[in-house]
Design brief:
Strand content: 15-25%
CATH architecture: 4-Layer Sandwich
Order of helices and strands: EEEHEHHEHHEEEEEHEHHEHE
Helix content: 10-25%
Mean pLDDT: 97
Strand order of the largest sheet: 6-5-4-3-2-1-13
Shape: globular
Low-confidence stretches: none
Radius of gyration: 18 Å
Largest sheet: 7 strands, mixed
CATH superfamily: Ribonuclease Z/Hydroxyacylglutathione hydrolase-like
Bound molecules: D-malate, manganese (II) ion, zinc ion
CATH topology: Metallo-beta-lactamase, Chain A
Number of strands: 13
Distance between the termini: 5 Å
Number of domains: 1
Structural class: alpha/beta
Length: 269
């Protein structure tokens, strides 16, 4: 299975357009686009996992995802969503030129996205459906992570609103959990034996930003105490010191085998 880490920043990206903090203004730091992946069993048919507002730039920067081989063909077959947050879904609207597309997500997420669908239906009738157990040879397992609704979904509705994925192919697997307030029950088993576990790295500590706790993101410093295996962190907020490779926080996590992949990281697993 091939995995491409398309983006690794939290909502707003890094640097964030309306933030002039020291990290966002540091010209030495590599920009990071908003969190998402592409996965493929065969290297020809690709599935996006989350669709960030940076999706067009991410596709153009990724030769595997560029249009072809036919004039109107694309290797992108569908989209899987972990949640309905705008930083994981606005990219759907950027795919509006697609004549066919399948969007897979939990029912509550699909329901919230009916607002998007009202728009996209005017262009092309895409398929919106539950997350399948298998897709082009990739076995898909999900774990309900939380019931945190996006702010725009104003009618409280039963979840799960956020899920984690485990993708398996030929006995090798990847776990992707970019949005977790606390590790859900069963997470250790869900992640057992995975080649990579990509985990929510929004914050390093629990006091990085006012109002942080209601945002519901497990800080890296806590996660590394709770998970006894190397972790890859994504969905980094611009307040997170690990964005700076020279930070002491980055040195601490790397000393324990954890890491922070750059945009464009490729894994063959
Ligand atoms: C989050 O990750 O908490 C959300 O994306 C925040 C937001 O965009 O409102
Ligand atoms: Mn987010
Ligand atoms: Zn900033």
């Amino acid at each position: 299975m091939k995995v491409i880490v398309l983006g690794t920043a939290a909502g707003g990206g890094f640097p964030q357009w309306n933030c002039a903090c020291a990290t966002c203004r540091d010209p030495e730091l590599e920009p990071r686009s908003q969190d998402g992946l592409a996965i493929s069993a065969d290297g020809n048919n690709w599935y996006l996992v989350n669709a960030s507002p940076d999706l067009r730039a991410q596709i153009l920067a990724t030769p595997e995802l560029r249009a072809g081989p036919g004039v109107r063909e694309t290797p992108i077959r569908g989209v899987l969503l972990t949640d309905a947050e705008l930083d994981h879904t606005l990219g759907l609207l950027l795919l509006r030129e697609a004549e066919t597309l399948t969007v897979h997500a939990p029912p509550a997420v699909l329901n919230a996205l009916s607002r998007f669908r009202d728009i996209t239906d005017r262009y092309h009738a895409w398929t919106w459906s539950a997350v399948p157990d298998e897709l082009d040879g990739i076995t898909i397992k999900t774990l309900a992570v939380s019931d945190k609704q996006p702010r725009y979904a104003d009618d409280p509705a039963p979840g799960p609103w956020v899920i984690a994925y485990r993708f398996e192919h030929h006995g090798r697997s990847l776990v992707y959990a970019p949005c977790v307030a606390q590790l859900p029950e069963g997470f250790a088993q869900f992640a057992a034996g995975a080649a990579y576990v990509l985990l929510d790295g929004t914050f390093y500590s629990n006091d990085e930003m006012p109002g942080q706790t209601v945002m519901g993101h497990l800080p890296i410093a806590t996660a590394v105490q709770q998970v006894d295996r190397p972790l890859a962190f994504t969905h980094l907020n611009n307040t997170n010191p690990v964005i700076d490779p020279a930070s002491p926080e980055r040195a601490v996590i790397e000393k324990h085998g954890h890491f922070v992949p750059a945009d464009g990281t490729r894994w063959q697993i």
